Amino acid sequence: MLPTVWLKPGILIIYGASLDAANHKHNAIQLVWPAGKSLCQLEGRELVGPLIINSQIEHQLSMEAGWVLLIEPQSNLGQQLSERLAQRPAVAISESSSLSTIAPKQGDDPASLLAPFFSMLGLDVTYADTNATTSLTDKRIQQLLSDLDRCLLGDCLKPLCWRASEVASQLALSESRFLHLFREQMGIAWRPYLLWRRTICAISAITKGLPATEAAHLAGFSDSAHLSRTFRSLFGMSIREAKHLIKPA
């Protein structure tokens, strides 16, 4: 069974089998819900079963089958997960649920499948508002994230529009002030965050059937090798390896 991938602003959802990643870390908070055997290694520990892994924590995951959700920390859902983590690198989920036995089919809407999952975890969120940036106080940064989200909604903007100097100019800020404000609001610097979003954009293109080279250029990478290096650092595998695993939802 190949993994099925859903992309939505604020969340990347994967359900599949034979997921085996090398050590990696990313800005997203990760929910792992295995349907079979699994092993996650992080900070010298070996963890099995359902997990919540905090942002920027290096980990290695192998899983026979199940769900992986990558959630942006500043989103509504991400904020609730951050509270549950309480600055710990990871927490085990002890609640039992039938979610792990449900294997979605091609074309399924994950909303109905994930609703009991969120409810069981006591999370006050619906699939429709996963990217509500309730933690942000600056409207300029809120609007910037909304503009970035347009890429996943089918209105992809040219990569050159996202240079820090140009974004700062659009926001009527100096480049240094913009970079400081973004880190202050988001908890991550602009460049690595943009790299994360460009990688998500490339995944979106690949799920639509584009070759890796074309997806890389669309997302603003110099070539497919640059995309693959970035992808490996963020997901623990090359884009070539991932391409064999990804099928459109």
TrEMBL record:
It holds the Pfam family HTH_18. PANTHER family: HTH-TYPE TRANSCRIPTIONAL ACTIVATOR RHAS-RELATED (PTHR46796), TRANSCRIPTIONAL ACTIVATOR FEAR (PTHR46796:SF10). The keyword Coiled coil does not apply. Gene3D superfamilies: Homeodomain-like. InterPro entries: AraC_XylS_family_regulators, Homeodomain-like_sf, HTH_AraC. One of its GO terms (molecular function) is sequence-specific DNA binding. This is AraC family transcriptional regulator.
